[in-house]
Here is the input.
Amino acid sequence: MKDRSAVIWTRLGPQPVKMGTLAVTDIECRFTYDEGYTDTGLRGLGLVYAPEFFTSTIVRERNEYFDLMPPLQALVPPRSEHNFQRALVLKYLKQINLDTQPGFDTDWNILIRSGHGAIGHLDVFESDEIAIQWYATPSKKGLIELDDEFGFSLKEFMAWFDDDAGILIDLLGPTPTVGGAIPKLMLSIAQSGWDGRIGLPTRFGDTDRTDIILKLENNAQYPGIIELEQLGLEVHREAGFDVPRYWPVKIKGLAALAIERFDRTRTGGTVFMESVYSVLASGSNEITNHYSTSYDHIASAIDNPYVGLVNDRAKAKHHLLERLLLAMLTGNGDLHLENLSFLEKNNETAFSPVYDPTPMRAYSIHNELTPPGMSFGHYGDMNDDGSFIDFSTALLHFSKNLGITRSILFDSIERLVKVTDDYDKRIEALSALPKENKLNLINIHLDIKNKLVSL
Here is the structure.
């Protein structure tokens, strides 16, 4: 493979600024911060790759899990035929007659063409010239009514990334053309909130719109998933968690959910945000997927004296405990490493607002207490006497590992059980979720509630 190079920019400051240069060889991924970038005081690639600690080139050996540093790998949609975002970009590459080889060649072309304007604070470009041109190009500021044609073509959508697609093809018809649990689109709406009009994502300096992620229901695989996510967001807000604004909408009879992005500023700049998966994988080659470690490991990382992940460690660990408790109470067995992130706001870093709290255990294929491999307090492990560590013992161990007293644990349980006191009735009131899924989720909720109360 020939060596490849790209540049990394960011909009964390008052103006876009070049962060550094990326190079990828057959065996290594290399990143070098630009001279003077440390003087900006801005965050770098990620919490582990802080620019003040990496004055020379960062070198990471490529492996079967990561071709790039984890914060950059996050910008490449996974190699799955069911990934909606990847399918969109692949259609775009086909339209510009770019013939890529399967594997990393395709990933690289996706990265340099759609790795800017994505979730988070990193913008990847093929060259500085392309970066400068992209930042200098004003966005299409008009908002259009959401009509039956959906208003956008693939060319218009992808032109927000690069302006060289020559053929117009439809983005969506009556239903999504690509599968996935919840296909997602990055769009914008009026700053005041949803009013039925949508636009392309904002650019630097835009102040009249707010960016959203529009999630579209996959009726065949996950009927009722949009109203389930809305219920999850509502319950987390009632429990006192920071939750972004959201609006349930209909697109030609298709259920959708518009969720405000919290990785953007009011002026189109970016906010530093990094998933727990990216942070842990940056620090250890043993992290190979988004569920390959325990919640206890997350707590240990928060306590790491050498890497400051958060400003208030005790508060972060209590947040982690309550997120897990509420995930179990609501039937969300999908609280994996990519569904937890750190975000910097007002010069303080803490856990981000809640996102993707969907009670996925409603669907039998996702009916697990926690993601595979993500245990807490060694739940399910075998004791020396051949018995298994039960739920209550594991939760007490986990709380102890967090440095949280039994009194505080019990207070959290009491509070969150009270918040979800009518959860079974709210599930029953859902209109799109099939009856068998409702019954499944209600039984799961009541079982966890009884286990927690018994503590």
